[in-house]
Structure formats: structure tokens, C-alpha cells
Amino acid sequence: NNKADEKLVQIDYRPGESYWLKPNGDRLTVIFSIKFDDKDDAVFGRVFINEFSKSAAGCPSCDVVTRKNAPPPSELKTVEGLAEDNCYISFLLEKRHLNNPQKTLEVLMSCRNYINFHIKCSKAFLHIRMRNKVSHLQLVLNRAKPEREVEKKTASGRTFKK
Questions:
Q1: Mean pLDDT of the chain
Q2: How many other C-beta atoms are found inside a 10 Å radius of the C-beta of residue 55?
Q3: Which of 14, 52, 69, 133 is the most buried (most CB within 10 A)?
Q4: How far apart are CA 149 and CA 152, in angstroms?
Q5: Alpha-carbon torsion, ordered 140, 142, 143, 146, to 10 deg
Q6: C-alpha span between 26 and 20 (Å, rounded)
Q7: Which family does it belong to (predicted)?
């Protein structure tokens, strides 16, 4: 590896978020910084990215994906002003990934949208489940209401007593 291979390229693509490209011989490391404005989205995002990296680890032909919450990955040690509360996700691209650069670029550039989509779908799914559970519990509560005692009267109009 020569010194040119070690150059880190930073691209700012959203306020508070960047991605970095670090060539390393015939490989390329792509690191995304993801900032979640909503604290619920941050929880869902971290869980999703964690599961994403675990599932990729179980597949030998899949990309190498790593996730860091804090501190930022070691490849970014020379970068100043990194946000500690951002989530970082790294992809290690090999020569086979770079055979079709247009497709690789499309997949990488849609990574943030892909994560956002799954966060929103997860939240919608949980909201549907919670609404269904509340409806079910309301039915149970309505069935548990005691019947009101109604005054029973005889045919002549007198009150019936037990």
C-alpha cells in the first residue's frame, strides 16, 4: 500500500452527516455517519443497523458491514469535529463490488433512505399492534362491566322484590 491509498475523502451530504471513502489497495471502505433527530428514531436506527451488521456477518458472500455507536471508527481518527451521538456504519467493498460502479453507487447512496424506510415501517407496525391491543383490551373491559340492576315490576305496577 502506498500513501495515495490511505487518503480519506469526506463528502458532506446532510447537515451533521457525512460519508467517507478510504481506498485500501483493491478494497474501498465506505463509512456513513447517521444522525437521528428523533430519539425514538435513534433507538430504532441503532437496533436496525445492529441487526443489519449481524445478518451480514453470517453470510460469507455478503459485504462486510460494521456498526459503531461511539466513539467513531478508527479510520476516522484524523477527522476533527465528529459528533459522538451519531451512529456510524462501515461497508468494506471488494473488487467484485466495484465491477458495476453505477449499481454500487446507487446502493450506497440509498443506504440512508433504506434505513429510514425500515425505521418508519417498524414504527408503523408497532403502532398498529398497539392500537389493536388497545381495541382488544377495551372489548375485555366492556365485557367485564357489571350489569345494572333494573327495578322489576309486576303486571300491576308494584315493584318486584327478591
A1: 83
A2: 11
A3: 52
A4: 9
A5: 130
A6: 17
A7: Belongs to the ARPC2 family.
pTM for this one? 0.70
Which residues make Cβ contacts (< 8 Å) with residue 119, sequence separation at least 6?
Answer: 41, 44, 45, 48
What is the residue-wise DSSP string for 10-71? EEEEETTEEEEEEEETTEEEEEEEE--SSHHHHHHHHHHHHHHHHHHHT-TTSPEEEEESSS
Give the per-residue pLDDT at 120: 93
Which residue is associated with the grid cell 315490576?
A: 153
Answer CATH for 3-138 from 2.40.30.60, 3.40.50.700, 3.20.20.70, 3.30.1460.20: 3.30.1460.20
Residue 104 CA to residue 118 CA, distance in Å, equals 20
Taking every pair of Cα atoms in the chain, the longest distance, rounded to a whole number of angstroms, is 109
Q: Give the whole-angstrom CA distance, residue 39 versus residue 140.
A: 33
Residue boundaries of the structural domains of the chain: 3-138
